[in-house]
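> Could you send the GntR family transcriptional regulator prediction when you get a chance?

Sure thing. Input:
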Amino acid sequence: MARTTPHQHVRTGRPLIGGEPLYRRVAAELLGELRAGTVPPGERLPGERQLAEHFGVSRETVRQALQLLRREGLIATDRRGSHAALPGVPVEAPAVAGFPLGAPQAGREAVARATVTWEVPPPGHAEPLGLAPGRPTLVHRYWCASPGGREQRTAVTSFSAVTLAEVEELARYRDRADGTGAAELRRTYDWMRRAGLSLHHRDTITRIPGTPSVRVTRQVHDQHARPLELTELVMDVQEDALVYEFMVPAAV
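Output:
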């Protein structure tokens, strides 16, 4: 909540003038900040101590305010904390920078498949991810072709140990990562955000000599500069175009 101005409240849970409990006032002000985008939907809220300091109330008052918002379905809480879940802004909406990197919108590709395996990552992946040489990890592979059968895009993603420790949904794939079944990881970035991770992407695009293709290398880090994933996408630029979308936060 660093982008807001702290409020001055009395540190008490007693009713205010008109009989309104203080926790209801805190809940209303917190809801207003969430609707203003101070904490985007799906992002983790600050802890009770930080919220108490922010609103100038006791932690018990904050706890009551959060319980009220939770009962009304305006926030959701899991083992990693609370996050905004406001009506009209679905928490499950895909991330702006979609996963897997380079996947066209649904219905555009004639053939597409994705699998996951538990194996030693491809050359050049281990060191950026902080993995020891020869250490296996979760590896995601994606392939799609044009309606005429021409291969358009191939992508391989390796995940770091940090990601598998922090993101339960990805960790569950370890026991079934045999490369035979389909892998539905389109919400990978949503899962990361729900785990309290802020995503920082760095994409590098290079031409592949002697071919009509380019290689896009994406590295994703969290707010603590810890590596989360590395993806290498190879795409035929004669057949398709890579589109980037950006969302700029509103000024406050």
